[in-house]
Specification:
mainly alpha; PX Domain
Length: 361
């Protein structure tokens, strides 16, 4: 990607999507070719600094505190040579609400400019509650809900690397502060699910969703209409595929459990069988079925972590694109309302002028 950054190793997700290059044909994410609307529009600096890179890892999730007030903190390690950062390698501790707070800040700053902001992982109230109420374990990294914690850790890492790949977002002051400031960030209270702000945010999102569904306007831009329909169609197919993959993972896990039951039954029969040859055969069958169980379990995990999570990220990206498109629809709506209001004022001023003209006569 042309820009101020160059990753040593391209992220595994969305590496075929270039939201800044207008050169690729049939790219559904490229902007419509048109003259700049204003000289104040932000321009992305492009140069050939191919030796610049930034790599971010999220690791060591650990539970902080006890009870319902506890939370999970993550170690965020950055390795980069971009000059805007103070060091080449540094680490900070961040909690999940900090990631959501960063995303909200970037959306507030850049969404109306038409920039696609990589989506942050969504909250999971059930998983969070399980981890919060779990009893402390003797060994770190074990306990209730650790599979869910690992899923979230990987999703947060992908989110940060996706943001770091963007030539504008990666040098944003708030993004840099998130990565390198050793002080605790201001508490992002708006991200709390059960807070008053969280409830208001939920109602606002519901209102936005209803507005997207009910509000229709005559579209006079063929490019926008075509790309909007294409994104909607791709998003629908992605969601169907994601649901099918989730069902596949569930069936693979059930098959793995049933295979394990066969292995245990064969092992039990081998101990009860008096015939030596048959007992040996049953024992070997139990060993084979146990290996098949492990293989099917690994396959189910691969389907979940590689395929299902990848599709989930793509669905989130399509949601971000639709948000950008909706901002354009809202801008058109505001323009229409203002133009109609202006017409009303012009008509009112014309009537006032007619009154004054009558008085002059």
């Amino acid at each position: 990607m042309d820009g101020v950054t160059h990753l040593k190793e391209a992220p595994p997700l969305f590496d075929n999507v270039d939201i800044t290059s207008p050169d690729e044909e049939n790219d559904i994410f490229e902007s419509a070719v048109q003259e700049p609307l204003s000289p104040t529009m932000e321009e992305v600096e492009t140069n050939d600094n191919t030796d610049q890179y930034i790599e971010i890892t999220v690791s060591e999730p650990q539970k902080m505190g006890d009870g319902i007030g506890s939370f999970i903190a993550y170690k965020v390690t950055t390795n980069t040579n971009i000059m805007k950062f103070k060091k080449r390698q540094f680490s900070v501790i961040r909690r999940f609400s900090d990631f959501l707070g960063l995303h909200d800040i970037l959306v507030g700053k850049y969404l109306r400019c038409g920039r696609i902001i990589p989506p942050a992982p969504q909250k999971n109230i059930i998983g969070s509650t399980k981890v919060k109420m779990a009893q402390p374990q003797a060994e770190p990294g074990t306990g209730l809900g650790m599979e869910w914690v690992e899923n979230r850790r990987a999703a947060l890492e992908r989110y940060l690397n996706r943001t770091a790949q963007h030539p504008v977002l990666c040098v944003d002051t708030d993004f840099i502060n998130f990565l390198e400031s050793e002080q605790d960030l201001p508490r992002a209270v708006n991200t709390a699910t059960l807070s008053g702000a969280g409830v208001m945010r939920m109602f606002n999102k519901m209102g936005e969703t209803v507005n997207k569904i009910t509000y229709k306007m005559d579209e006079n831009d063929p490019w926008f209409e075509e790309k909007g329909a294409e994104v909607e169609n791709l998003d629908m197919h992605m969601q169907k595929l994601h649901a099918s993959i989730k069902a596949l993972v569930t069936h693979r896990r059930e098959l793995s459990q049933l295979t394990g039951g066969v292995a245990k039954s064969a092992a039990l029969l081998s101990t009860c069988e008096e015939h030596t040859g048959l007992s040996r055969a049953l024992s070997q069958l139990a060993d084979v079925e146990e290996k098949v169980e492990l293989l099917r379990s690994e396959q189910a995990n691969s389907d979940l972590y590689i395929l299902s999570e990848t599709l989930k990220d793509y669905i989130g990206l399509f949601g971000a694109i639709k948000d950008v498109f909706h901002e354009r629809v809202k801008a058109n709506s505001d323009l229409y309302i203002l133009s109609e209001t202006l017409k009303d004022y012009i008509g009112l001023f014309g009537a006032i002028k007619d009154v004054f003209h009558e008085r002059v006569k």
